[in-house]
Specification:
The chain is of the alpha/beta class. The chain has helices at residues 9-26, 41-52, 80-87, 109-122, 159-165, 184-189, 203-211, 239-244; strands at residues 2-6, 31-34, 62-65, 67-69, 99-100, 128-131, 153-156, 178-181, 192-197, 229-234. Strand 9, helix 7 and strand 10 (229-234) form a beta-alpha-beta unit. Bound molecules: fructose -6-phosphate (F6R). Fructose -6-phosphate binds next to loops.
């Protein structure tokens, strides 16, 4: 595992965007696993910048997103379909038919999970998976539980996640209670994983995930056994790692 500490959010975003653009330049038809939330916004805006300058071309890229809220239509402003379109896809030359987000409106979420996992397989798996980390230790919406769930599945969001994500909604009551998320299988099957984290609120859980016991109670801890993980955090997110394991930072 490579762990980089960036001085601030802009530098964190730039470093992560750099790794993604290198992936696309080396393999133009890469399958990118994409994340939403606040953390990757700077990564997307940096990639848009480089696209506009002609440095990176997304024509052949395929993408699969990690998750979607159950019950939100793609046009809903808090849906992850909408987020991806507004914050990334509409600004670059990716072909929309090559972009995929789980269907939050699926009546049969188990069938949707099978469809999504087959789709990822049919694309040849994920070349590079971008991840944020939740304050519960979730990756995608794989919340703490008794076992790691491999398949794309429906998840009941933890209260901590609902509280954290309420900032995007008019009220806490409007935050969906369920989501459909890519499982640990597809994430761990990605050839490369790139985890980004910023802010002091992520410092403890980041340390616990990367250096604590591997347990489904801390879903991100499974990344310790992935062969190619890069973590990029800003100073604040790296604070506990810097204090307890300074030599682990590249
Ligand atoms: C988003 C996702 C989540 C977020 C996590 C952190 O697609 O899968 O795991 O990455 O909740 O969210 P932010 O970046 O808003 O702190």
């Amino acid at each position: 595992m490579k762990i980089f500490s960036a001085p601030d959010y802009t530098a964190m975003s730039r470093k992560a965007a750099n790794l993604i653009s290198a992936q696309v330049i080396l393999k133009p038809d890469s399958v990118l696993g994409l994340a939403t939330g606040s953390t990757p916004l700077g990564v997307y805006s940096q990639l848009i910048d480089w696209y506009e300058k002609g440095d990176v071309d997304f024509t052949k890229v395929r993408s699969v997103n990690l998750d979607e809220y159950c019950g939100l239509a793609p046009e809903h402003e808090q849906s992850y379909h909408y987020y991806m379109k507004e914050n990334f896809f509409k600004h670059i030359n990716i072909q929309m038919v090559n972009t995929h987000v789980p269907d939050g409106l699926a009546k049969d979420v188990t069938a949707e999970g099978h469809r999504y996992d087959k789709l990822i397989d049919s694309l040849g798996g994920i070349d590079l998976q971008l991840l944020g980390i939740g304050n519960t230790g979730h990756i995608g919406f794989n919340e703490p539980s008794e076992s790691f769930i491999k398949e794309t599945h429906r998840v009941t969001l933890k209260q901590k996640t609902i509280d954290a994500n309420a900032r995007f909604f008019a009220s806490k009551e409007e935050v969906p209670r369920y989501a459909v998320t890519m499982g640990i299988g597809a994430i761990m099957g990605a050839k490369k994983v790139l985890l980004v984290a910023n802010g002091a609120g992520k410092a403890e859980i980041l340390y616990e995930s990367l250096f604590g016991p591997i347990t489904p109670e801390v879903p991100a801890s499974i990344l310790q056994v992935h062969p190619d993980v890069t973590v990029v955090g800003d100073e604040a997110a790296m604070a506990v790692i810097r204090e307890k394991c300074p030599s682990a930072i590249d």
